Amino acid sequence: MKVAKNYGIPNPAKKTVTQLCSSIKNRAKNANTNNVPLAKLYPEAARKRAAAKKRVEKRALDRKVAANFMKKMTTPIRERVVTPARRVVVAVMPMPKPSKKAQPLTKQEATKRIKAMKGLTANNKFRLVNRLRLNQHSPRRVVRLARELARLR
Length: 153
Known about the structure:
- The protein is mainly α.
- Helices cover 65% and strands 0% of the residues.
- The chain has eight helices and no strands.
- It is elongated, with a radius of gyration of 45 Å.
- The mean pLDDT is 80.
């Protein structure tokens, strides 16, 4: 409707879309306004577009400034450069074996310890070894229970 009014079409509200389009085309052909830039025809739209472009550019610049600021404020984590010689040394060096107490108990080791305890009755020994076989508790826990029972007797 606004475009039709700009072209000077009389009472555009009463015409259909096809009639409006055909009349606008005819006016455009007859008038030598094809080479006129759209900014001259619609100055408000051009101003709005330019303002929007400026806002976008300003946001981009603000982001860039913030990113640079953060880069300067933080210290980068440098990756440790590993020379081939150092890598070989690390690969060759064996890990220290844990002490006897720190090593995990196996089921066989736990049963051997429980059976060797003199303070336990045969019934208690059987129950504790059975707990190991059924995986009810860890071997270390069962041995601790056995020690406690032997101490109480």
